[in-house]
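Person: Please comment on this record:
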Amino acid sequence: MPKRTDLTPTGRPIIAVLTNPASDKGRGRFAGRTAFDLMQRRGGELGYDVIDITGGTRSESLRNASRPIPDLAALVVVGGDGMVSLGINAVADRDIPLGIIPCGSGNDFARGLGMPIGHIAAAVEVIMAALYQHSAINIDLGHVRSAEDGGRRVNTFFAGMLNCSIDAAINSRANHSRLPFGGLRYMEAGIWEASHVTDYGFHVAVTFEEGFRSEYELSTPLIAIANGRYIGSGIEASPDSDLTDGVLEMLWVKWMPSVPQALRILAKAYRGVHTGDPLIGYRRIREITLDYGLQGGKPPTLMADGEIVGTLPVQVEAHRKALKLLVPDAVRRQWRSSSDDKSGE
C-alpha cells in the first residue's frame, strides 16, 4: 500500500485510509488490506487517488491524519469504535468528511447509524456513493478534557460514550478477552462485572438541559456520559441519544444493586428498555465535571469508544456539529427530515 510519503501530487482528489493491522488478534490486517484494495479500485474508477496513511503506532496514525494533506476529499477508517475514535479526533472541526468501514469488535457508533457492519464491500460502496452524491451529515461529538489544567492532560472527542465506572471495567475486560467475537467478549465481561459490583465515589457538578446546575457527592457502580446510543457491541445503553441535539445524556445507577438486580438491568439494557427501571437515573445534560468523591471506591481509568481516556477530574460537554460524516443519501434525507421536524416543534 502506498504511504503518504510516497505520494506524488496528481491533481486528483485524495481519499486517505487508516487501518488497524494489530487489532483483533491480527484479523485487522486482513480486513484493512481488503478494504484498502477495494477503496483503491473503486476510488480509481471514480477519479480519486486512495492512499494508506496508517502509522506504526496509533499515535503515529493520528499524527498522519491530523496533518494537512493537499486535495484531501475524505478520511476513511477501517475497524471498530477505536478506529472511529482515531478518525474523529483527526478531523473534528476541520470540515473533512469521515467515512467508516465498520469491521471491528464493537462497531457501536456505526450500529447506531444503521451502517453495514462486517460487510467491507458494502461499506466501501456506501462511502464511494456518498462522495459521488456529496452525501454527508454534521453531527455532535462529546468532548472531554482534564478539569484542573485546561485540557493539557486529557483532551479528546468521543462519538459514543464516556465510560467512568463499571462500564469502563467491562470495556477493559472485554479488550483483554480471549473469546473470538466482540459480542461474546462484552457479554462475558458484563456478566462478570455485574456479578462483582463495586460502588465508586464521584463528586459531580452538572448543568442539566434546562439550565440549572447541581453539585453533589455520588456513590454508584455506574455513571456514563452518552453522545451515542450503543455500547459493548450492541447494548443500547442510551436509547434516547440524538447526535444533533447539542446535549449529552447522563446515565447512572441510583443505589448499590444486588447481583440479580445488576444482571436484570444488563439484560434490559441489551433491549434499550432499562431507563424506566427505578434503579436507573437518566437525564439530559449540557455539561458535567466529574472528580473523585469523598466516599466509595476509586473509579477506574476512564474509557470512551473502546479507548483509554485518562483519569479524573474531567469536564465533559457536547460539541455541536463537530463531525462531517459520510452516509448513504437515504440516511442524509432522513436526518434532514428529522431536523426539520424538530425545528417545527
